[in-house]
Amino acid sequence: MNTTAYLIQALSVASDAAGVPPEIQYMPPGTHTISATKDGKPSKMSVTVNAATVDRLNASLTTLRGQGHEPFIDFNHDDKNAAGWLESFSWGGDDAKTGGVRAKINWSGSGKAAVESRDYRKFSPTFLLSKDGQIVGTDVNAGGLVNRPAFTSIAPVMARSAQPSDTPNTMTPEQELADVKAKLLAAETKAANLEEAAKVSAKANAESIVNAAIADGRIPAKNEALKAGWIEVITVNAKSASLLQAIAPNAALSQVIRAKTGDSGKAPEGVIDAADAASKIDAEVAKVRASHSVSFTEAYNIVRANSPELFEAAASEL
C-alpha cells in the first residue's frame, strides 16, 4: 500500500524575476534524508530523486486525470484553495539549485499574489512511496506553498541576484570542506586522465615518426634498441623528431626494410653485416651514455661524429 509523504523544500529561482516562475523545483536531485509526514506522523526517511522519478510522477498525473482529477498545489497543505494547477513534470539535471524534478505550474490568482507578495517563498511536494521507500507518484493535492523548508539551501521562488541574502549558504564547515575536497579530487582525476591520454598520443606519434624514418632508410630496421631509443626521445620531446629527420636517408637501409617486409626485390649481399654494423653503433651509443651521462640523442650524435666509419660500414657492407 502506498504511503503519502510531504517533503518540505524551497521553490526554485524564477526564470522571470519580474513575476511568478512558470515552473518550480518540485524535488531536488540526489539522495536526501528528510523530515516528512508519513501516515499523519512526523518521520525521518531517505528518498532518492533522479531522472526515473520524473517518469513515475508523469505516469501518476496521467492516471489521476484519467480518474477525472486535476492535480493542484495549495497553501500549507490545507487542501483548500488552489495556489496553482500542476501541468507536467520534467528533469532539470543534477544541479542542486536549478535541477532535479521540475514542475510546470499554472498559477491561480491567489497563488500568484502570494508568491509575488513574498507571503510564501518555499514549496513542499506531496508524493507517494512504495513499501521499499521508492517514489512512485504524486497525489491529487501535489504539494503546497510553505515557509519552513527542510532543504534550506534550495533557492527561494523570488530570489534576486541583487539580494544574495535570499539564497544563504547553509552548509556547515565540515560540508564545505567535503565539497571542496570532492571538487579537488574530480579536478585531479580529470587532469590525470588528460595527462595519460597525452602520453599515449605522444608515444603513438613518436612510433609513427620512427617507423617512417625506418622506411626511408634513416635508421636500421633490425636495431630494436635504436628504434626504442628514438621513440622514447621523441615521446618526451616531439621537437627531437627533427634530429631524426635530419639523418640522410640510406638507400641500403631502405633495401633492408623492403626485404624484411616481403618486397619482391631481393636484398643485396651483406645485409647481415649491415645489421652487425648497426649493432656496433648501438653498443657505442650505450657506452657513451654510460660514461658521459648524456641523452640518447646526444650520445648518438657523438658516436656519429667520432666514428663515421661505423655508419659508412653500415651502408657500404649492404
Descriptive account of the structure:
It is a single chain. With 318 residues, the chain is α+β, with helices and mostly antiparallel strands. The chain has two domains: 3-157, no CATH class; 182-316, no CATH class. Helices cover 44% and strands 21% of the residues. The chain has nine helices and ten strands. It is rod-shaped and about 100 Å long. Residues 12-17, 159-168 and 256-272 have low confidence and may be disordered.
Q: How would you sum up the major sheet? A: 8 strands, mixed
Q: In percent, how much strand structure appears in the residues?
A: 15-25%
Mean pLDDT: 76
Q: What is the ordering of alpha helices and beta strands?
A: EEEEEHEEEHEEHHHHHHH
Structural class category: alpha+beta
Number of strands: 10
Q: Low-confidence parts, pLDDT < 50 over ≥5 residues?
A: 12-17, 159-168, 256-272
Determine Rg (CA atoms, Å).
36 Å
How far the N terminus sits from the C terminus, by CA atoms, comes to 89 Å
Structurally, the number of domains stands at 2
Number of helices: 9
- What portion of residues is helical? 40-55%
Shape call: rod-shaped
